[in-house]
Amino acid sequence: MDLTHLTSLSITQFRNLTMTDCPLSAGFNLLVGDNGAGKTSVLEAIYYLSTLKSFRTQTHNDLIARYPDRDRGCAVVRAGVHQDDHDFFMALERCKDQFRLRLGREEVPRASLFVAHLPVLALHAQSDDLVLAGPEFRRKFIDRMAFYLFADFVPAYAQFARMLKQRNAALRTGQSTEIWDPLFIQYGERLNEQRVAALDLLKTVLPQVFEALAPQLSVDMQFHPGHKSGLDLSEALARNRERDREMGQTLIGPQRADILFTLNDYAFKSFASRGQIKVFTAALTLATAHIWQAQRGKRAVLLFDDFMSEFDAHHSSALLHYLSNMGHQVFISAVDRQQIDFPFDAVFRLDAGQISAVV
Ligand SMILES: Nc1ncnc2c1ncn2[C@@H]1O[C@H](COP(=O)(O)OP(=O)(O)OP(=O)(O)O)[C@@H](O)[C@H]1O
């Protein structure tokens, strides 16, 4: 079993943070501090090291420290990692237009070789997008799960995206799509299979997790593959060929897939309260962690930003109780230590981007 956890963290020029070799607990870490102190930024830096993406901006340059009186340099995040009885360092340096990535002493030439190493899951203010925003957020969610489950997810996804681009280019210029269709179908079907398999796993795990957090409510989900149900992708594509030609783009397929989440048989989006959505996204995070661990032996690091917002006392204690039985490394941020009644293994205070341990 892979007992991945971070042992230490050094951060420079990432948002407002400066921290050097801050030792971390393998259990529960609490980050406290006033508004704007840097709590979310610490969680964001850990997530960035895992995924090379931020959970609150798509603009990498937002992450590099801004100074009123000098040019910006490069953001650096470096973590000590314990994994499979080994200790090593993961480091990333983000300059204006490029990444430098290192695993131990080795430079890593490609992002896809780096992002598989540190499984991290985060619950944050934007997690609601999964339920409330467009289908691309749900596709991203299920694809991230599939990425950790299937070794051929990245090549299948990349090839499908390439075929879609070529097919759309042909449609825009009034050319035949015949040469692109077989591979569009082949990779599109593989993508569908992987998404369905990931969702089937989620269907087996999520209801139990949700019930532990919110008894008396039931959740379910339905996958929409992006074409008419009952048809396979090749039939659907053939039937839609004329409309694709008229519109100059591919109107059906995995690029249009979506997931419908329901609460007590009603669509979440139109029925659930904000707190119920938050509990649901927390349950999705925990269910994903269970699935990665059961299927790939990967124990994810779990991040919970601004833990107390939206949860009432009952739900926050149910979530903490559930987490304490999972045995994962957890980072939680909150404005005040008194907000959360829980025996944390380590407590840190953030103050204007500087971190210190609270004894
Ligand atoms: N690129 C940047 N360079 C320097 N400072 C930045 C940059 N981006 C954001 N900041 C500042 O970093 C600080 C930390 O923000 P962060 O969101 O991490 O705080 P927080 O402790 O989570 O606050 P809150 O409790 O209000 O959510 C803020 O004061 C913000 O204005």
Layout of strands and helices, then pairs:
Elements: E1 5-14, E2 17-23, E3 28-32, H1 39-51, E4 75-83, E5 86-94, E6 99-103, E7 106-107, H2 111-114, E8 120-123, H3 129-132, H4 135-149, H5 153-172, H6 181-213, E9 219-224, H7 233-239, H8 241-247, E10 258-263, E11 266-267, H9 268-271, H10 274-296, E12 301-304, H11 313-324, E13 330-334, E14 346-351, E15 354-358
Parallel strand pairs: 3-13, 3-14, 8-12, 12-13
Antiparallel strand pairs: 1-2, 1-4, 4-5, 5-6, 6-7, 9-10, 10-11, 14-15
Helix pairs in contact: 4-6, 5-6, 6-10
The structure holds adenosine-5'-triphosphate.
Adenosine-5'-triphosphate is lined by residues 15-16, 33, 35-41, 62, 64-66, 306, 335, 350.
Protein name: DNA replication and repair protein RecF
Keywords: ATP-binding, Cytoplasm, DNA damage, DNA repair, DNA replication, DNA-binding, Nucleotide-binding, SOS response
Family: Belongs to the RecF family.
CATH class of the domain at 1-119 and 298-359: Alpha Beta
The biggest beta sheet, please?
A: 6 strands, antiparallel
Strands of the widest sheet, in order across it, are: 2-1-4-5-6-7
Q: State the end-to-end distance.
A: 32 Å
Bound molecules: adenosine-5'-triphosphate
Q: Helix-strand pattern, N to C? A: EEEHEEEEHEHHHHEHHEEHHEHEEE
Q: Any idea what the shape is?
A: globular
Radius of gyration: 22 Å
In the CATH hierarchy, the architecture of the domain at 1-119 and 298-359 is 3-Layer(aba) Sandwich
Please estimate the helix content.
25-40%
Number of DSSP-assigned strands: 15
Which structural class do you get from the secondary structure elements? alpha/beta
Query: Which residue ranges are poorly predicted, with pLDDT under 50 across at least 5 consecutive positions?
Result: none
Number of helices: 11
How large is the share of residues in beta strands? 15-25%
- CATH topology of the domain at 1-119 and 298-359: the name is Rossmann fold
CATH superfamily descriptor of the domain at 1-119 and 298-359: P-loop containing nucleotide triphosphate hydrolases
Mean pLDDT: 94
